[in-house]
């Protein structure tokens, strides 16, 4: 297994998503509020993972524009949940940068003015119990 | 007892009944045995006392084939067995003249042994003439006494009641004997760990000698040919040749009478090895009551039994 | 005989399948190539209500480590009501086996329709795992117990 | 002692690749009773069957074991083969070493071991087999069709034309079904009513067809050739014989507020009503829930205006009990409820509609008299968006996993009709895939795109938002352009998934016909017996078996009719010989077995029983072979084992158990 395959496997494992189930309907991208800012669109995330093509994902701007609003997760008719894939890719990108789990005190200094509030709120929602 | 004999003589004399099914004195004073009496004279051997635990209803299967009516004495609990047999078309109501006899709890020598009174020669105080308080027992080692209640069969401590579900006439009073819950013992076993349960039944069932006394006495176990004697299942009795069969025998026997067993307790009473066989039957009764609603075999001579009926929402196997 | 630790324990498992739903479900599992261990051997019966408790005990007597019965889903019995009777019988029988201390997991009932090849295979995989974890069936044999 | 032959099939490589067939063959020869064993490439082939026949003749075989595919596949083949070669067909047993062995195991050694055990079990069983002879039962020459849509009508017409009596039971007040609600049909665009109405009239006029509308099947008993069915004819409150169908009662009825079922609730109807103008029978019914007379006791206007005196408030439900030889299920479909798809705003805006509602809007007899308009304000829409696959192809519990099959084509039809009649209306179709397998189907779809300028966009709609100005904003993907679209529309049409009618579950239970996880009735074989239910004598017509368009439904309706006719044409049926049988020497006559028999096949007789040491009159159980279906419930209820099942006897099953556990 080469590095890219390994990363793809990791993403599948972290997200619990099987990209093979996707029927390429595009419903995820239809209502994504950050669609315009994304270089790789939510529906494309699925095929990138399916093709084990992970590097572009971890370098993608999309990771940092996804609000984790989970509209795509809720509405996906096939249970593929692109939002979870993005989430997983974000985690991998963080790990690659040497990032680790943050303590609560470290968080405030990481915020800048451009961070959308929704992102913060959704992060809390995502990591709630 | 004299009242029973007098009435019996009347019924024999006026031709109402052709014979009488009752108890007569056995080899020992503690084991009266079921017997037919064909005339007033033979009634001299008739007994009815505290040791007459035997349930006579099963003999009515045979008596139903005979000419004329048979007078049979049934205790309250025995009437349930008779009713169940009636439901299964095994006895003929028209051929039976049922005298419901009073019962003040039945005692046994095994119960005496259990409280330490052994080598019994004779017992006084079981004649049912008084309130049945005290027994005076003559033993090889001298006389002793005990409370009547302490010599009672387990089944009488959890007696279902004084009601007769079928009879032609009643003679004698019954006493309240209940001082326990009949499912307590089952609950106790259920509360054990699987290992303890296994050890318990292993110890008990290991005693079985396959004498078939339980089967022969059981009013529900009245097949013309038992499956364990039949070639139809390749399970014909091979005494002790394959010991698994003993366990299989007791589970299957309990299963075959499930929903039909009236909990008369005869199986445990007659077991020469003292195996508490009623615990198997009662487990089924308890499960049936819990899962499918209270059901009392023999209470009615009509209707389906729990195993020949169902509801759409029954519990799933393995969930209980 | 003590178990050889190196040799993998291969249980003997008898599966009673009704002709109309579960046997067909097993066929579907086969034609869909959904594997399950070869330890499972299927006996075809017309309906789950044909399964006599005698058969189940007989299997244990002859050395089976687990017995599973599969039938049509309640309400879908080909004979309309057969599985309802089977359900009561097996509920009581299994409860009794549990009562005398035989491990609960050695017996199982599962309703499998003709369309549920996936369920059939998954059930058998699960059941075999369960039996493997319980090990060889000694209790039912041991009750015979010449002490 | 039996003389058994064991025949091991390679099934090409299907079996032989995983099972060492030679080893199975060799081992077979060591089994008790086996005098012959051989293997062959394809046992079911003519050459394979010839080998079996030859071995029977040469070795004087009395029983046969074929180790091959599932008995559901070729048991009949091998039984017929054995019968031709002169031994009883029930002396044949199959060891299923394909579906239950070679196909699911990979290791050759393991699979071979299992195959040997399965072979042993089959040999052990055959050792105890006895020749069985099928009984005979009568066939009632009358068919019942449940459902009066196009499927039911076509099946009834075909059966009736063959000369057999047919009854149609329809739960609504008129036959016609879903097709009567449609405006035009694809791919020819002819008017649905124009082609359906003549069929309805033909069915009503046919002297062999009897129609029970406003009726439901209440109870079914019996079996193939001899079903007994109770039909509940609900009280119509109108005398069918007196009513002239003048319609005056409906004009005068003051209760006008009930949503019209026929128009999908888009408008209302009166309490006394016929669902639509061409209804058959053209006799109204009184909806007692809505009728003022039934609710308050006052009114009675319809009775006053009815010159024929047909109104009968006292009418009661009637139960009709009839015998049938065959039953055809044609219960059709409904559109799924959309409450779980609120992102499409179906519950929030009247301008978001289903395709079936659009069908009524487009229809000249519909709530808008055929004029395309918004239901909210009556304006003609300028931009219409069609959303495909709403609830179809859905992996979660919100929708259905299957493709509803008809939506792509009817959407193309709708788009085309709208563009044709209203050329300035923009029509956009959001699709995931356009599926057009069918004669002239793709050509039809291409015409919509190329000639009618319908805008097809690949991508699903994510949500629909009703705006304060009454318009609808549609958020969607354009996957080919990799764009997110935000589009304003006046009307959104949802291609909602179709599902079997809710009543089918109950009917399937009554018929003991099996249904799948989606409530579609299961066919006896998905490829080779697609119009028969596994339950003998029950046939499937139309969407109750799976999604279909009209031509397919009509074709299947005809096929179901042919199967029913094939059954009705027989005078007698051979019955399954694997029936229960009581050993009268052992029977207690305890009556328990009759309690569990679903067919009432067990009765009790007092008769002279003779056996070793026995000669007496006893009450014993007697099984009626024509009624017994061989489930075996009685055999387990019988404590003594007097009741046994032929072909699956206690000893046979125990022999199998022993062989497997050996």
Show the helix and strand layout.
The complex is a heterotetramer of chains A (129), B (320), C (147) and D (662).
Chain A: H1 3-15, H2 27-30, H3 42-50, H4 55-59, H5 71-75, H6 82-96, H7 107-110, H8 117-126
Helix pairs in contact in A: 1-6, 3-6
Chain C: E1 13-18, H1 22-31, E2 40-45, H2 53-61, E3 66-71, H3 82-99, E4 107-111, H4 117-134, H5 139-142
Parallel strand pairs in C: 1-2, 1-3, 3-4
Helix pairs in contact in C: 1-4
Chain D: E1 4-9, H1 21-28, E2 34-40, H2 46-59, E3 63-68, H3 71-84, E4 92-96, H4 98-102, H5 108-126, E5 135-138, E6 142-146, H6 150-161, E7 165-169, E8 184-185, E9 190-191, H7 192-205, E10 209-212, E11 215-223, E12 226-233, H8 248-252, E13 258-259, E14 268-269, E15 272-273, E16 285-286, H9 292-296, H10 301-305, E17 318-324, E18 326-329, E19 333-335, E20 352-354, H11 355-362, E21 383-390, H12 407-421, E22 426-431, H13 441-450, E23 455-458, E24 461-466, E25 472-478, E26 483-489, E27 491-496, E28 498-500, H14 504-511, E29 538-540, H15 550-568, E30 572-575, E31 580-582, H16 592-596, E32 602-611, E33 614-623, H17 633-637, E34 643-645, H18 650-661
Report on this structure.
The complex is a heterotetramer of chains A (129), B (320), C (147) and D (662). Chain A has 129 residues and is an all-alpha fold. Chain A has a single domain, classed as Fumarate Reductase Iron-sulfur Protein, Chain B, domain 2 (Orthogonal Bundle), CATH 1.10.1060. In chain A, 50% of the residues lie in helices and 0% in strands. The model of chain A has no long low-confidence stretch (mean pLDDT 83). Chain B has a domain of 140 residues. In chain B, the strands form 2 sheets. A 5-stranded mixed β-sheet of chain B has the order 2-1-3-4-8. With 320 residues, chain B is an alpha/beta fold. Chain C has 5 helices and 4 strands, in the order E-H-E-H-E-H-E-H-H. In chain C, 40% of the residues lie in helices and 16% in strands. Chain C has one domain: Rossmann fold, CATH 3.40.50.960. In chain C, helix 1 packs across helix 4. The longest helix of chain D is centred in the first third of the chain and has 19 residues. Chains B and D meet through loops of B and helix 16 and helix 18 of D.
Classify the oligomer.
heterotetramer
| Separate helix tally of chain D | 18
CATH fold label of the largest domain in chain D: FAD/NAD(P)-binding domain
Mean pLDDT of chain A, as a whole number?
83
């Amino acid at each position: 297994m080469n590095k890219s395959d390994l990363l793809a496997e990791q993403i599948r494992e972290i997200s619990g998503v099987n990209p093979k189930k996707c029927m390429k309907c595009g419903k995820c991208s239809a209502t994504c509020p950050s669609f315009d800012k994304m270089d790789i669109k939510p529906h494309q995330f699925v095929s990138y993972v399916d093709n084990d093509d992970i590097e572009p994902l971890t370098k993608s701007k999309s990771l940092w524009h996804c609000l984790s609003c989970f509209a795509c997760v809720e509405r996906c008719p096939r249970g593929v949940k692109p939002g979870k894939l993005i989430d997983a890719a974000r985690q991998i990108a963080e790990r690659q940068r040497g990032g680790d789990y943050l303590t609560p005190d470290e968080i405030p200094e990481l915020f800048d003015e451009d961070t959308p509030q929704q992102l913060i709120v959704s992060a809390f929602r995502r990591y709630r119990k | 007892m004299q009242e029973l004999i007098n009435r019996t003589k009347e019924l024999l004399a006026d031709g109402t009944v052709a014979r009488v099914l009752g108890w007569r004195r056995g080899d020992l004073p503690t084991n009266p045995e079921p017997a037919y009496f064909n005339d007033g004279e033979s009634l001299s051997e008739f007994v009815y006392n505290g040791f007459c635990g035997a349930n006579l209803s099963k003999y009515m299967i045979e008596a139903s084939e005979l000419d004329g009516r048979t007078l049979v004495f049934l205790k309250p609990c025995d009437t349930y067995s008779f009713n169940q047999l009636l439901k299964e078309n095994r006895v003929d109501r028209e051929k039976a003249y049922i005298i419901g006899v009073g019962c003040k709890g039945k005692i046994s020598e095994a119960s005496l042994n259990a409280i330490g009174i052994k080598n019994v020669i004779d017992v006084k105080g079981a004649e049912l003439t008084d309130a049945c308080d005290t027994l005076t027992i003559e033993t090889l080692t001298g006389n002793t006494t005990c409370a009547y209640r302490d010599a009672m069969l387990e089944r009488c401590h959890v007696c279902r009641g004084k009601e007769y579900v079928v009879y032609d006439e009643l003679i004698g009073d019954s006493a309240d004997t209940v001082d326990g819950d009949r499912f307590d013992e089952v609950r106790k076993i259920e509360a054990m760990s699987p290992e303890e349960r296994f050890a318990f039944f292993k110890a008990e069932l290991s005693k079985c000698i396959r004498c078939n006394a339980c089967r022969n006495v059981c009013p529900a176990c009245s097949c013309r040919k038992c499956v364990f004697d039949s070639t139809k299942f390749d399970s014909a009795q091979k005494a002790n040749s394959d010991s698994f069969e003993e366990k299989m025998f007791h589970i299957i026997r309990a299963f075959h009478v499930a929903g039909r067993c009236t909990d008369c307790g005869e199986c445990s009473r007659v077991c020469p090895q003292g195996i508490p066989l009623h615990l198997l039957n009662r487990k089924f009764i308890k499960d049936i009551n819990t899962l499918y609603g209270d059901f009392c075999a023999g209470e009615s001579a009509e209707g389906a039994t729990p195993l020949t009926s169902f509801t759409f929402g029954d519990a799933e196997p393995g969930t209980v | 005989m003590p178990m050889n630790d190196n040799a993998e324990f291969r249980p003997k498992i008898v599966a009673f399948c009704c002709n109309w739903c579960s046997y067909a479900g097993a066929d579907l599992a086969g034609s869909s190539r959904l594997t399950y261990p070869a330890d499972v051997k299927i006996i075809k019966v017309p309906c789950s209500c044909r399964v006599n408790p005698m058969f189940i005990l007989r299997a244990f007597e002859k050395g089976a480590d687990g017995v599973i019965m599969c039938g049509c889903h309640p309400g879908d019995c080909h004979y309309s009501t057969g599985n309802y009777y089977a359900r009561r019988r097996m509920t009581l029988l299994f409860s009794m086996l549990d009562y005398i201390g035989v491990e609960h997991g050695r017996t199982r009932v599962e309703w499998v329709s003709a369309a549920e090849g996936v369920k059939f295979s998954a059930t058998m995989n699960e059941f075999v795992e369960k039996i493997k974890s319980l090990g060889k069936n000694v209790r039912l044999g041991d009750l015979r117990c010449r002490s | 002692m039996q003389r058994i032959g064991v025949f091991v099939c390679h099934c090409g490589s299907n079996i032989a690749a995983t099972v060492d067939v030679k080893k199975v063959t060799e081992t077979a020869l060591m089994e008790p009773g086996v005098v012959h064993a051989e293997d062959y490439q394809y046992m079911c082939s003519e050459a394979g069957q010839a080998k079996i026949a030859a071995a029977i003749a040469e070795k004087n075989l009395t029983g046969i074991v074929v180790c091959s595919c599932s008995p559901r596949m070729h048991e009949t083949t091998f039984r017929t083969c054995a019968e031709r070669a002169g031994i009883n067909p029930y002396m044949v047993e199959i060891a299923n070493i394909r579906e239950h062995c070679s196909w699911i195991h990979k290791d050759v050694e393991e699979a071979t071991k299992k195959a040997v055990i399965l072979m042993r079990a089959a040999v052990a069983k055959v050792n105890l087999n006895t020749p069985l002879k099928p009984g005979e039962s009568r066939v009632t020459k009358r068919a019942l069709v449940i459902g009066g849509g196009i499927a039911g009508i076509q099946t009834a017409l075909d059966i009736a034309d063959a000369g057999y009596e047919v009854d149609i039971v329809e739960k609504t007040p008129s036959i016609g079904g879903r097709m009567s609600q449609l405006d035009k049909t694809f791919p020819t665009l002819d008017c649905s009513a124009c082609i359906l109405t003549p069929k309805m009239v033909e069915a009503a006029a046919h002297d062999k067809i009897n129609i029970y509308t406003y009726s439901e099947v209440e109870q079914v008993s019996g079996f193939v050739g001899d079903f007994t069915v109770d039909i509940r004819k609900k009280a119509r409150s109108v005398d069918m014989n007196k009513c002239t169908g003048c319609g005056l009662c409906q004009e005068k009825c003051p209760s006008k507020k009930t949503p019209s079922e026929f128009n999908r609730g888009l408008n209302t109807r009166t309490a006394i009503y016929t669902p639509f103008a061409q209804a058959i029978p053209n006799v109204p019914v009184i909806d007692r829930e809505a009728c003022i007379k039934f609710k308050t006791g006052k009114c009675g206007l319809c009775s006053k205006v009815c010159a024929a005196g047909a109104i009968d408030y006292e009418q009661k439900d009637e139960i009709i009990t009839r015998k049938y030889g065959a039953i055809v299920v044609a219960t059709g479909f409904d559109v799924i409820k959309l409450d779980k798809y609120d992102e499409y705003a179906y519950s929030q805006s009247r301008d978001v509609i289903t395709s079936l509602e659009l069908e009524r809007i487009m229809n000249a007899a519909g709530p808008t008299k055929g004029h395309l308009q918004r239901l909210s304000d009556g304006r003609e829409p300028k931009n219409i968006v069609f959303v495909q696959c709403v609830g179809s192809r859905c992996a979660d519990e919100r929708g259905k996993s299957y493709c509803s099959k008809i939506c792509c084509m009817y959407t193309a039809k709708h788009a085309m009709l709208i563009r044709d009649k209203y050329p300035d209306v923009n029509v956009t179709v959001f699709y995931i895939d356009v599926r057009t397998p069918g004669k002239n189907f793709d050509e039809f779809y291409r015409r919509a795109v190329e000639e009618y300028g319908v805008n097809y966009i690949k991508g699903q709609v994510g949500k629909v938002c009703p705006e304060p100005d009454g318009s609808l904003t549609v958020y969607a993907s354009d996957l080919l352009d990799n764009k997110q679209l935000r589009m304003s529309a006046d009307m959104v049409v949802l291609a909602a998934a179709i599902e079997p009618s809710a009543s089918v579950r109950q009917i399937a239970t009554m018929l003991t016909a099996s249904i799948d996880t989606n409530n579609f009735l299961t066919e006896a074989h998905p490829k080779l017996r697609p119009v028969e239910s596994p339950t003998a004598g029950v046939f499937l017509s139309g969407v109750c078996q799976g999604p279909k368009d009209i031509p397919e439904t009509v074709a299947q309706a005809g096929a179901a009719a042919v199967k029913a006719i094939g059954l009705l044409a027989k005078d007698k049926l051979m019955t399954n010989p694997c029936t229960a049988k009581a050993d009268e020497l052992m029977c207690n006559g305890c009556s328990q077995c009759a309690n569990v028999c679903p067919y009432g096949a067990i009765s009790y007789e007092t008769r002279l029983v003779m056996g070793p040491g026995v000669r007496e009159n006893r009450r014993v159980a007697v099984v009626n072979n024509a009624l017994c279906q061989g489930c075996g419930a009685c055999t387990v209820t019988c404590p003594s084992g007097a009741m046994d099942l032929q072909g699956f006897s206690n000893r046979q099953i125990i022999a199998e158990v022993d062989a497997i556990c050996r």
